[in-house]
Amino acid sequence: xxxxxxxxxxxxxxxxxxxxxxxxxxxxxxxxxxxxxxxxxxxxxxxxxxxxxxxxxxxxxxxxxxxxxxxxxxxxxxxxxxxxxxxxxxxxxxxxxxxxxxxxxxxxxxxxxxxxxxx
Length: 119
Hints:
By secondary structure, this protein is mainly α. Helix content is 74%, strand content 0%. The protein has one domain: Leucine-rich Repeat Variant. α5 packs antiparallel against α6. The chain is globular, with a radius of gyration of 14 Å.
């Protein structure tokens, strides 16, 4: 099967109503590495489904590409509600997995604001 067709098929599953299906698709997309990066970024930025955006953020963390850092930081800022959205939680975890200085600073800053909001 053509890898781009398989990626497209899996991206559609990120919008499935069941969490289990979404995260299985996210794991499978991560196996494509940077080939899946652009479609995952599009879901993270554009999807109306919080579940799909959460799964995309999770998958981007598994891929661990620096190219995803800006979009993940944006997702953190957009999801900085009280309580934080699942998208922001997964974006933070993914930034920690990517592990660049910029990614770690953003994750630490977000975590510290979450702690101060709870106290």
